Amino acid sequence: MNQHLVSAELPALVLRAALGRFATGVTIVGCRAGDGGWVGLTANSFSALSLEPALVLWSLRSASPNLQAFVAASHFAINVLAENQVDLSRRFASPVPDKFAEGLWSDGLGGAPVLGGCAAVFECEQVSAQPAGDHLLFIGRVLRVSEAPLMPLVFQSGHYRMLGEIL
Fold first, then answer.
1. CATH number of the CATH domain containing 29
2. For a pLDDT cut of 90, what percent of the chain falls above it?
3. Which domain holds residue 43?
4. DSSP-derived pairing of the beta strands 55-61 and 46-50
5. What pTM, to 2 d.p., does this model score?
């Protein structure tokens, strides 16, 4: 049944369900924390913003325990997961204490964690962090990018998906 609601009566769960119909890629976003360690999380709120200058954006819940680390970081890396990295996506979406114990991690620009075996990696200098509703919107200038001919991990309607060819 299709529901047509106007924003004044729009419950958050209805909005979340409708937004979930939009398929997204899955990323692990990471930065170097003030104590020298890495901080990272699974996010699907990543998007291209501009080609010239090269800008990308992502958002993080204002209530996230990782918020201050990202606000203070000068750089962050967006690691676009390949379809065989679903276990890492789940790991970084969980409260596991040492998330970086799994995966092939290395220091990227500004000390941000870069994951090997990804479909793409965007190493960014943070240029903006601004409140937007119940999230903080981060904009980064892409300083270095890499990509591989791997199928990306996809998330849609609360489930991981794999791409398939249209014949």
1. 2.30.110.10
2. 78
3. 7-157
4. antiparallel
5. 0.90
43, part of any domain: yes
Q: Tell me, yes or no, whether 59 lies in a domain.
A: yes
Residue 162, domain member (yes or no): no
What tokens appear for 67 in the block? 């918020």
* Residue 2 within any structural domain of the chain: no
pLDDT in tens, 74-126: 999 999 999 999 999 999 999 998 999 999 999 999 999 999 999 999 999 99
Closest CA to 30 of 83, 66, 84: 66
Q: DSSP character for 19?
A: H
How many structural domains compose the chain?
Answer: 1
Q: Residue 151 has what DSSP assignment?
A: P
Mean pLDDT of 128-145: 97
Q: Do the beta carbons of residue 123 and residue 114 sit within 8 Å? A: yes
- 166 — pLDDT class (breaks 50, 70, 90): confident
What are the DSSP calls for 68-120, one per residue?
Answer: HHHHH-SEEEEEE-BGGGHHHHHHHTS--S-GGGSS-EEE-GGG-EEETT-SE
Q: Are the C-beta atoms of residues 162 and 25 closer than 8 Å to each other?
A: no
Give the span between the Cα atoms of 167 and 155, in whole angstroms. Answer: 22
